[in-house]
Amino acid sequence: MNSILFEQASIKNIRLKNRFVRSATMEGMATSDGLPTGALKDLYCMLADGGVGFIITSGAIIEPYKHFPENFSTALAIDENDKIEAWQGLIDAVHERGTKIAMQLTYLGRQDIPEWRGSTPIAPSAVPIQNTGVTPREMTVQDIKDIVEKFAHACRRVKEAGFDAVQLHGAHGNLINNFMSPFTNIRTDDYGGNTENRARFVAEIVDRTRELTGPDFPLMIKMNFNDFIDGGLDVDEAVKIAEIIAQAGIDCIEVSGGTLSESKDHIAVKGITKKEQEAYFRTYAKALKENVSIPVILVGGHRTPDVMAKVLEDGAADFISMSRPLIREPGLIKRWKNGKLEKAKCISCNQCFENWIFRPLRCYVEEPLKERHN
Between β-strands 14-16 and 9-11, what pairing exists: parallel, antiparallel or unpaired? Predict the structure, then answer.
C-alpha cells in the first residue's frame, strides 16, 4: 500500500517506520510488583510483528500502592531503580522487529481508590466525585513538589531502561489533567486560577525531567482537549496549555478527551459503524496543529485507512494512534500494508475497555489472547 500512513516520520530524534501508534492500553499483564511478564512481551512482539511503528505501554505507576487486591489486574510500575533492568529484554525484542517503544507514566489523582492507595486520594483541589462519593485531599505545595520529583525520576528510569521515549498521562481525569482543568482545580495559589498557573504543575515536571534526562530524550504527553464536563477544560484553553508546555520542552502531544469519573463514554466511543463517526477528536487535533510546531498524535475511533490518511493529508495530525482495533487484530497494520484495506474488524463494543481492571487484555469477540502467567 502506497500511502502517507506508511511513510517514515520522526518524533524528536527517533525515526518511526510508519505513522501508526499503539496508544497506551491497560494490559493487566504485570507481576504483583509491576514488572513485565512473558505475556506482555509476547503481546508487544505481536504488535511489532503486526506492523505497528510505535508502541506506548499502559500507564506505569510512579508511587506504589499499599493494598492492591489480588483479584484485579496489576499496573506496571517504574517507581524504584531496581525495576529498570527488568524491561531491557522486552525493549530489545521490540527493537529487533523495527518498532520503537515508549513508556507512559500515570498518577490517578482524585480518581484513585482509597482502599488501594491506603490513604485519601490527592488532587489540586478537594472536588468530590459524585458517583463514588470520594472527596480527594487538596495537595499542599510540598505535596506538589514531591510528585513532580517522582514523575521526573520515573522519566529518568524510563530512559535508563532503554525506552525510546516517555509519555506523561495528562488526560482522562488523572492528576495532571486535574491540574489543567478548571473543573478540578479551584486553587488560588501559583498552581491554580489562570491558564498559566494550571499548566505550572506539568511544566515543572518537564523542567525537572530535563535536568535528569538531558535535552535529547523525547518527552511526550497525552492530554485532554475537552473534558466533556460543564466548567471543565475545553479546546481553546487546552491549546493554550499545549503551547505553554511545548515551550517548556514537550516534544509530542497525543490528543484525547473525557474523564473516567465524569465523562467516560467520551474516552472510547461505542458503536462506530460509519466513517463520519471515526476520528472523533480530529477537530481538536487540527486546532492544536495550527498553534504548535511539534508532532501531534490523534487517537479516537480510527477504523478505515482512507479516513486516517485524510487526517494526515489535511494536516490535522502527524500520527494515528489506536487501541481497540489492535486488541482484536494485532496484525492490522501489516494487513493494510499488504493491500487488504477492509476497515478494522473492531465493532467498538467496549467490552475490552469495561473489563480492563478485572482481567488481562483480550477481545471479547475474537478468541481471547493466550494468557500466560510467567
Answer: antiparallel
